[in-house]
Amino acid sequence: MFAERSRRDIFLLAVAQALYMTTIGAKFIVVALAGNTLAVDKSLSTLPVALFFGAAMLTTLPAAFFMRRFGRKLGFVVGATVAGAGALVCAYAIFERSFVLFCIGSAMIGSFNAFAQFLRFAASEIAGPEYRSRAISLVLAGGVVAAVTGPYLARLTNELFTPVLYAGAYVSFALMYFLVIAILLFVHLPRLTTAERQEAGRPLRVIARQPEFLVAALAATAAYATMMLLMTVAPLAMIECGLTFADTATMMIFHMLGMFGPSFFTGHLIKRFGMLDVMLAGAALLVANIVVNFMGVELGHFLVGMTLLGIGWNFLFIGGTTLLTQTHTPSEGAKVQGFNDLLIWSSVTLAVLASGMLQAGLGWWFVNLGVIPVIAAALGLTLWLRFGRRRFMPAE
Questions:
Q1: N vs C: which end of the chain shows fewer Cβ within 10 Å?
Q2: What are 59-91's pLDDT values in tens digits?
Q3: What is the three-state SS of the chain?
């Protein structure tokens, strides 16, 4: 399937992804709860999450061009270093009960998110065109480990500095980020040649007018915005419905298994059925998630609904990412990938910021209502590309 060195490097990227996603899985259990504890205005409890993604949004294009100039490895190392420092700032802020400082630390961690999202593109470059979807899937499959270790890490470290809650979790995040750096030092990542760096390629406006780009970008954006909006407030909704912190950790395990478990075979499904059919299945699963969420607020509803949300995200996001790689040349990769992720994190930032206000002011059902137009747009445009055009997309 892959050359020996490529297999090793993709495996190490998957391990780095697993460690990074472990912190994400733990973070999104504690961040809204910690923000709710520190914020005087409870409608701002998800502001640290919004700043996390806002920083990712602002860092995306600089990260893409930094990696184009200096290589992906250095970019990953720089991003993880800033994240480690940000986690320590968050821990200190919790001790000092400073909401402002907590927001600053969250933004610092978020800047690494912009770099870490390029792990999937790094894998596709190692694998080459024939195995891109599988390499992307295998790296994202590292999140399966995080599905268990993330919530467990949150539960294990949540009361480490009792009576100060949540600070221990952020100290553990810092250690995880520094471990990511150590692993990435052993990964060989190809760099653009001098000629490729000097080649400008087509203008972005020309690339962005391709129907394939439009569908890929919208699918990835819709998948992430929907997933993050619901995942961010789900712990708050569960607590408000009388469920426990342990229940929220269990929910996160189910959700992250849904997000990353299918990655072991999503690449094969794309190879077998094509990107667009897999993306349509993902959009349908997001619709199913909303239906389950409207059916009730017992623990079972949250577990089933958030699992469907995770699987839908997986199919739509991996399919969209694979489709995006077909819309540009290597020399155009930085601006296309950077612009794509800028769209994702811009929408996610707005969605997460709105989620706290919706949850505090209107409740869980209205949060779910808010994502329906986004899912409908992604579903409709993918259907148009799949059935409304004469030519069909290739499987890879």
A1: N
A2: 988 888 898 888 888 999 999 999 999 999 999
A3: CCCHHHHHHHHHHHHHHHHHHHHHHHHHHHHHHHHHHHCCCHHHCCHHHHHHHHHHHHHHHHHHHHHHHHCHHHHHHHHHHHHHHHHHHHHHHHHHCCHHHHHHHHHHHHHHHHHHCCHHHHHHHHHCHHHHHHHHHHHHCCHHHHHHHHHHHHHHHCCCECCECCHHHHHHHHHHHHHHHHHHCCCCCCCCCHHHHHCCCCCHHHHHCCHHHHHHHHHHHHHHHHHHHHHHHHHHHHHHCCCCHHHHHHHHHHHHHHHHCCHHHHHHHHHHHCHHHHHHHHHHHHHHHHHHHHHCCCHHHHHHHHHHHHHHHHHHHHHHHHHHHCCCCHHHHHHHHHHHHHHHHHHHHHHHHHHHHHHHHCCHHHHHHHHHHHHHHHHHHHHHHHHCCCCCCCCC
- Per-residue pLDDT tens for 322-357? 898 888 887 787 788 888 888 887 888 788 777 767
Contact 37, 31 (CB under 8 A): no
Q: How many CB atoms within 10 Å of residue 31?
A: 26
Full set of structural domains in the chain with CATH: 4-387 (1.20.1250.20)
**In the chain, which stretches have pLDDT less than 50?**
1, 390-396
- The tokens describing 60, both together, are 């995306």
Indicate the residue type of 113: N
What global pTM score does this model have? Answer: 0.72
360-383 tens-digit pLDDT: 667 788 888 888 999 999 999 999
